[in-house]
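Example 9 (inverse folding). The structure is encoded as follows.
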């Protein structure tokens, strides 16, 4: 039978393990689309909802069970706009480190924000007239291109 000091040591050990996480988790619910990858090819696609997100990974729920150890790409609709006008997607590549039924934990190898393929217009009135710009956000590359309008005098 363990003694009281031994139980206290176990509790301290458990507390220390819980605090060793390298990345803070944020409980946020986002829609997520995923691609299960096998040798660089898409093996299965599906969707789900995040339970928590960190810069080191994601925990999400989906309709089917996924194999632990598998490579995966996740795409999440980010809740904030770039410059207040352009929707963003968070794209994360990683591997499945834990699969408990429909609850899947991903360790991220890399992540990046991409623009979500929409257009925005900006009209600015200056001292000599109006300047019009319509940035175009490329859906596949995420690069931002701009078309500048003519100055009106």
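The amino acid assigned to each position is listed next.
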């Amino acid at each position: 039978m363990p003694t009281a000091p031994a139980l206290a040591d176990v509790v301290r050990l458990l507390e220390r393990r819980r605090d060793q996480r390298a990345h803070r988790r944020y409980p946020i619910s986002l829609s997520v689309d995923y691609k299960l990858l096998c040798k660089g090819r898409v093996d299965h696609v599906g969707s789900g909802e995040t339970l928590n997100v960190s810069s080191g990974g994601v925990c999400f729920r989906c309709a089917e069970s996924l194999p632990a150890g598998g490579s995966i790409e996740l795409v999440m609709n980010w809740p904030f706009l770039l410059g207040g006008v352009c929707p963003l997607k968070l794209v994360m590549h990683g591997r499945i480190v834990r699969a408990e039924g429909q609850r899947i934990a991903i360790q991220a190898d890399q992540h990046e924000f991409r623009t979500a393929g929409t257009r925005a217009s900006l009209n600015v009135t200056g001292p000599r007239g109006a300047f019009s710009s319509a940035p175009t956000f490329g859906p596949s590359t995420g690069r931002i291109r701009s078309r500048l309008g003519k100055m009106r005098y």
